[in-house]
Design brief:
alpha+beta, Double-stranded beta-helix, 6-stranded antiparallel β-sheet, globular
């Protein structure tokens, strides 16, 4: 089903875009642009576009307010602090009629559409979650005000801050869970499993506690503590966890993981590999 942002509103700063999300495990979002409409995206997320779409590399945070040189420098500096490129890519429809451009997920998971108007113009997410957004949305930084959160929160002192009045799209690994927290409700989450949350959510770090849990638990020393009111989005497969599993399976010194087992070479023989 084609998803639409809503009726035109001349008071909005961000461009009003229509979109449709395709796929199940490896999703992509197709954005429909009217004439003169545009969308910004992280480098490397582009998938395909119709003839007539103009691609432009921009220096800054993508908002409508970074038109001056100092504004562009400041916007680019904010992106550099989050570990992203100084540049973003903008796609514009410069012809008459509607044109489409698509952006793909970087790894298995779900694409989440966030209407910033529904969240008082601000949404906070992990640094690598942002995929694309309507032109006019600002992609900035959110500093942690608490030392414990900055040192042990997994995302460090800095998270991404998406501000404006348009649509933005973030990516979550694996299966996506949405939790609506009432005032006083508390949710404890693995620090890497956080996708993002609304600005009213109180985010802090909590020590797991207990010597056995800390040393042998295998879940790290700290939880993320999220307290309502607000909405929290959780991912089941953070990229760091996926990358860790891949690294564990890479052969070391010419030996596969199975060669380090009790059966050793006999195990390889039994499963059809007779190399010793």
């Amino acid at each position: 089903m084609y998803q639409k942002k809503g009726a035109s509103n001349s008071s909005l700063n961000a461009h009003e875009i229509d979109y449709e999300i395709f796929g199940e495990e490896m999703q992509y979002v197709e954005i429909e642009l009217d004439p003169e409409e545009g969308v910004i995206a992280e480098a490397g997320s582009f998938m395909m576009m119709d003839n007539g779409i103009k691609m432009e590399t921009i220096f800054g945070d993508g908002s409508q307010n970074d038109t001056g040189f100092l504004g562009k420098i400041f916007g680019a500096g904010k992106r550099l602090l989050t570990g992203e490129s100084l540049f973003m890519t903008a796609f514009y429809n410069n012809l008459t009629g509607k044109r489409k451009v698509s952006f793909a997920s970087p790894y298995p998971g779900k694409i989440l559409a966030i209407d910033l108007l529904e969240h008082n113009g601000k949404f906070i997410c992990q640094k690598d979650a942002f995929l694309c957004a309507a032109k006019g949305v600002s992609v900035g930084i959110e500093f942690s005000k608490k030392l414990g959160r900055g040192l042990f929160g997994g995302e460090g002192f800095i998270m991404q801050k998406l501000e404006g009045d348009g649509l933005t799209f973030v990516h979550a690994g694996g299966t996506l869970a949405k939790k609506v927290l009432k005032r006083g409700d508390t949710l404890r989450v693995d620090t890497g499993c956080i996708v993002g949350f609304t600005q009213d959510v109180n985010y802090d770090i909590e020590f797991v506690g207990g010597i056995k849990n800390t040393i042998f638990g295998g879940e790290g020393m700290f939880f993320a503590k999220l307290q309502g009111p607000g909405i929290v989005y959780i991912q089941s497969l953070p990229f760091s966890r996926l990358a860790g599993r891949v690294l564990q399976s890479i052969p070391s010194g010419g030996k596969t993981k199975g060669e380090g087992s009790i059966l050793g070479g006999l195990g390889n023989l039994l499963d059809g590999d007779n190399r010793f």
